[in-house]
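Title: Request for sanity check on FtsX-like permease family protein prediction

Description:
We are preparing a figure and want to confirm that the structure record we downloaded matches what your pipeline produces today. Could someone re-run it with the sequence below and paste the raw structure tokens into this thread? We only need the token string, no images.
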Amino acid sequence: MNLSFFIASRYFRSKKKRNFINILSRIAMVGVAVGTMALVIVLSVFNGLEDLIRGLYASFDAELKIEPVRGKSFEVDDQWLGQIREVEGVQTLTEVIEDNALLRYRKDQMVVTLKGVTDNFLDEERFNKGYFIGDLTLGTQNQPAAIIGRGVGYFLGIDLDNEFEKLRVYYPKAPRAGTIDPRQMYNSDIIRPASFFSVEKKFDDEYIIVPMAFARDLLNYQNKRTSLEINVADNYRIGQVKEKLKALLGEDFSVKDADEQHAGLLRAIKIEKLFVFITLTFILAVASFNIFFSLSMLAIEKKKDIAVLLAMGATNRLIRSIFIKQGAIIAFSGAIIGLLLGFVFCWLQDTYGLISLGVASSVVENYPVKIIWTDFLWTSISVVVITFLAAYRPAAIAAKVKTVEHL
């Protein structure tokens, strides 16, 4: 066994008559354990929230989205769409027309985002997460139906069971010169409300999903589309298919994966997670001040022992190593306990849902958690750095003990 580690471990386990230093060491160890456990739990919660948001968005958005770089819409034809479908790895292609429109139900009205989609939109496991009530259908060509965001439905007071009340949708158009008839200034049509969905507030409060033919005729888009949504086959990586589509479409179109479609929100979560990590690491550093105090007092108490070691030929480097390893034993003992407790708590939360969100309208009942091994790695690195900083000064003081004065 390494000599410095052997002496440090004996100091840590020894029972002194004046056991105040031992008590202080145990307090330091508990402080590190609690700080490490809190760090692991909080980072795992952020991972769970990020994963939850990705899952909720994935139930509404496609894995890849094609949009024009310039302008709002673009022309499509069967030949061009066929080339995209033939790209290796493309499983389904959904055509999308998306624009703002005025929605009216009875006497209430609001501006919504109208999203017209082709029939295969519902064949891609849409709305498999979150909240959904009603019939998962877009109706027929003669009787189209709409899937409505829950926030829109609540605001307008839409009753799905009332078959006589329909939604009326209005879209402005350029009137003919000299006309004074207000009916010439907009297109309108009616559609049956079929169901409500809820995946995320942004979508819930703004969107209604309608058949492509309904949106195309109402908005007068003809062969124009605002985007194309693509789902990737199971045996292909999204990144590979994305690069193939970019090569095919050129610089006039952007191809975004799920993260890029909501880059701002995910970036905000990562930044918040980073600042929380820095804050909790600082709290962990404050808790580690007990290591500094316990090692400083130990250096004062063990001056005679240090003098004896120096007289026997020990070097200053060995003395410093003893106290640094003493601090490492205290910190690493607490860190290991904290990592284990944090892992167990996160596992219990993920398996049994110990702590509830307490929000009745939430799409999940309990706080989501996700354990990532890199969080344990960075937490361990933080403990190593903090331990070295806390133990270096007492170790340097101990190495300056003069042999003659303490023998």
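Thanks, this matches our download. The chain has 13 helices and twelve strands.
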